[in-house]
Amino acid sequence: MKPSLRGILSILLVLALAVALVGCGGEKPAEDANKETPADKLKVAFIYVGPVGDGGYSYAHDLGRQYLQKEIPDVETTFIESVPEGADAERVLSELAEKGNKVIFATSFGYMDPVIKVAQKYPDVTFLHCSGYKTADNVGTYFGRMYQARYLSGVVAGKATQSNTIGYVAAFPIPEVIRGINAFTLGVQSVNPNAKVKVVWTNTWYDPAAEKEAGKSLLQAGADVIAQHQDTAGPQQAAEEAGKFGIGYNSDMSKMAPKAVMTSAVWNWGPYYVNTIKAIQAGTWKSEQYWGPMSDNVVDLAPFGPMVSEESKQLVEAKKQEIISGKWDVFTGPIKDQSGQVKVAEGQKMSDAEMLSFDWFVQGVDGTIPK
């Protein structure tokens, strides 16, 4: 039976459509030519000194990374945790640059020299180093004025202590940690001049057992409030087990020790990470030493626990507004050192350079700074 003319035309039409579809499959349509593919994404990497599960420092940075990923979907973020400071950091930084990461956030003080060294080999990569002070054309530093939140948390501790001995578990005797201890102590003494802040050094950022033991030693020495500059909630857990109170750090540590934690001095890195990446994408980023104040929301206090009095809350809020407005800042004189010598005269304010190089304790601190 011969095919009809209509049948022949139908067959030819089907064949023509098939050829057209095959052609479209081998070439991206014009309207999709400018659409982003995964390969086009800006690759951003983070290296952490501890695990993201530390509940503290690295955890706070990773919350910032997650915020960045959510706010800027066309960025691809990765992280490597528990990277020791030193030669290992240099190796990891180099590997991240080789894998195509164009922005690398190195989040610990001890990464500073490795960052500077690796950055020289990868001039097309932007490196941001947290808490350091060395820069280059493609290296910037960033940090926040945590001393402002420290002072406010000191007000809470000073109002809460009954023994007038407050323990402070401290990591390393570097200016950042010393500055925090001093700010906290000034806050304590602003509401309780009889209270002392007793310091114990652990010489580690991340060691849950050592941090907890240091907290226990301070409790045994008479402290009834435990503060810290450490990466885990170990000191807060020691306070809770002893039926005492504490001040957390890095992130809200109330989940780890709800009966002890009155508040925490916390980091909020997300907005900084977003602003930095937007500047890099726009081509407007320049190397700088960013030291953000509380008014930038990079540092703050976590919500108060139920054990914090209304009086304490009101005192903190009043002082917080003074800090945010710029009318007053923590290291405004008169300030004396441990020996009673006036280091900052009344009405004077310490410069950033002076605060960034702290190597002495204020009056009210019970402890020494190892050489």
UniProtKB/TrEMBL annotation:
<keyword id="KW-0732">Signal</keyword>
<dbReference type="GO" id="GO:0005886">
    <property type="term" value="C:plasma membrane"/>
</dbReference>
<protein>
    <submittedName>
        <fullName>Basic membrane lipoprotein</fullName>
    </submittedName>
</protein>
<dbReference type="InterPro" id="IPR003760">
    <property type="entry name" value="PnrA-like"/>
</dbReference>
<feature type="domain" description="ABC transporter substrate-binding protein PnrA-like">
    <location>
        <begin position="42"/>
        <end position="325"/>
    </location>
</feature>
<keyword id="KW-0449">Lipoprotein</keyword>
<dbReference type="Pfam" id="PF02608">
    <property type="entry name" value="Bmp"/>
</dbReference>
<dbReference type="InterPro" id="IPR052910">
    <property type="entry name" value="ABC-Purine-Binding"/>
</dbReference>
